[in-house]
Structure formats: C-alpha cells, structure tokens
Amino acid sequence: MQLLLQQIVEGLASGAIYAALALALVLIYRATRIVNFAQGEMATLSVYMAWQLNQWGVPFVLCLIIVTAVSFMMGALTFRFMIRPVLGASDHTMVVICIGFFVGFEAVSLWFWGADPRAFPRIFPDDTWAIRGVRLTANNLGILVSLCIMTLGLSALFRFTRIGLAMRASAAEREKSALVGIPVETMLMLGWGLAASVGFIAAVLVAPSLFLSPPMMVSVVIYALAAATLGGWDSPAGAIVGGLVVGVAESLCATFIGFIGNELKVGVPFAVMAIVLLVRPQGLFGTAAVIRV
C-alpha cells in the first residue's frame, strides 16, 4: 500500500507538469483550432533566457518574472506575424507550419546555447517529509500548489474579467464576437501570449529534473498531448484532469507492470490516446461535434 501511495504522489507531481503544458495547448486550440506542436520548444527557449539572465547575475525570481513577460510577448508576436496571415489555411497547412515552428524554435536554442545539458535551479527546496511511510518532497508539493494557483488564476481571469470574457467569446464565436465590437484578433493574440507564459511555467517546473537542453520538452509534449486528448481539446478543466490522470497512469504502469518499466513508460500516453479516441473521441470533458444534414 505504501508503494502504491508513493507512486500516486509521484504521478500527481509529474501529471501537474503535463497538465500545465496541456492547458497551454488547449488555450491555443480553443482560440484558433490549432494544435501548436511547438509549445514545448517555445517554452524551452524561454527557460534558456531565464537561465542566461541568471548567469549574468540577475536574481532568479526576477529572471522568472521578466521571462514570463517575455514569453507572453513571444507568443503574442508569433500569432500576430506568423499565424494571423495564414489563419484561414487548411488543417494540413497549419500542421506543417507548427512543425516548422517546432524545428525553428529548437534550432534557435541549439544555435545560441548548444546541445550540452545545463543544470537549472530548483524553485522549491529539497526538504522531504515522511507521512506513514510515504515520502513527500517540497518540490512535488510546490509543483502541485503551482498548478492549483495557476488554475485558480486562469479561472478568475476567464470568469470575472472583461478581457477574459472577451477571450472566451472570441474563441467560441469568432464571427459573432466581431459583430458586437470585440477585437477578436487582439483577443486571439492575448490567448497565444497567455499560453506561452503557461508553457514557460511548466518548463521551469520540469527543467531541474530533466536538465536544460534544446529537446528537453519533447517527451513532456507527448504526455501533454495525451492529457489534452483525454480531457478534451475544448476543455481547460479537462486538460488539468487529463494531465493528472496521465501522470498517475505512467507512474503506476512503470512500477507495477513488469514489461513496461522505465524504458517503455513513454508508450503509456499513446495507449491513453488510442483508448480515448476509440471510446470517446471528444475526450472526457470535451463537446461532441454536431453535424446537421
């Protein structure tokens, strides 16, 4: 029982990171119906910026604040100058464009900082507590608390502010929102910026464990895609639940299913995606498409 509880705790901590990146993916998808495969690479580039500022002597907390704002601008400008001109393109074209972003952002990180892994500072201390044999770390608890704070903050933004309501309206009914005076393109640009900031937070949380390198977020994006598929691509709450479920499933399968282990645990999110797409294509919390004939 202690081993089971321990793996659930570890899985929730990992799942919180997957959930944060899945939330960024869902925010962009809801606004523009685009799956941004480069979300992790954009976040990695932002983490490199924070690392470089810290190397130059800027206090670590100030680095995170500055780069969160820079990430927002990077996401907003990516939409404004690269996505907006082709917003009406076909799905296949958008997939190719996002794959190009994936390669491009990773190439920028590789060009400036090279391929060698670098140590990234932990936000949370290394304190550890044991409760009835289950080990709890300050890092794991900090990750879960960070996810809760981010979720509550985004919920408050979308529910109680005029900008948040305008962003929701623009994502739901782009044409009708423009008719009532909402600057739709500006709201979509803000959505991309917000998603980039959320992705940066997810990358900051995982960087100390994975070490900072250009392909650092590739595996995390795989889990985030599974989380968004499980929860539903039009449901931010589903992204959170999906991320936590994927994290726990990965941890339990790697521990209790012998032939999987640490080597094959990356196959868990693919299995989750396959099962969900077969049973409930819209995800657990997603809305099924209705086609009238």
Question: Would you spell out the secondary-structure blueprint of this structure?
Answer:
Layout lengths: L1 H31 L6 H17 L4 H24 L7 H23 L14 E4 L2 E4 H23 L1 H11 L1 H6 L4 H27 L7 H14 L4 H21 L10 H13 L14
Antiparallel strand pairs: 1-2
Helix pairs in contact: 1-5, 1-8, 1-9, 1-10, 2-3, 2-4, 2-8, 3-8, 5-6, 6-8, 9-10, 9-11
How would you describe this structure to a colleague?
There is one protein chain. This protein is mostly helical. It has one domain (2-215). The protein has helices at 2-32, 39-55, 60-83, 91-113, 138-160, 162-172, 174-179, 184-210, 218-231, 236-256, 267-279; strands spanning 128-131, 134-137. The protein has a two-stranded antiparallel ribbon with strand order 1-2. A hairpin with a 2-residue loop joins strand 1 and strand 2. The longest helix is centred in the N-terminal third of the chain and has 31 residues, at 2-32. The radius of gyration is 19 Å and the shape is globular. The N and C termini lie far apart (54 Å). The mean pLDDT is 88.
How much is the average pLDDT? Answer: 88
Shape: globular
**DSSP strand content:** under 5%
Structural class: mainly alpha
The overall number of domains is: 1
Looking across the biggest beta sheet, what order are the strands in? 1-2
Number of strands: 2
Helix content: over 70%
Alpha carbon gyration radius: 19 Å
Largest sheet: 2 strands, antiparallel
Which stretches of 5+ consecutive residues score pLDDT under 50?
Answer: none
Measured between the Cα atoms of the first and last residue, the distance is 54 Å
SSE sequence, one letter per element: HHHHEEHHHHHHH
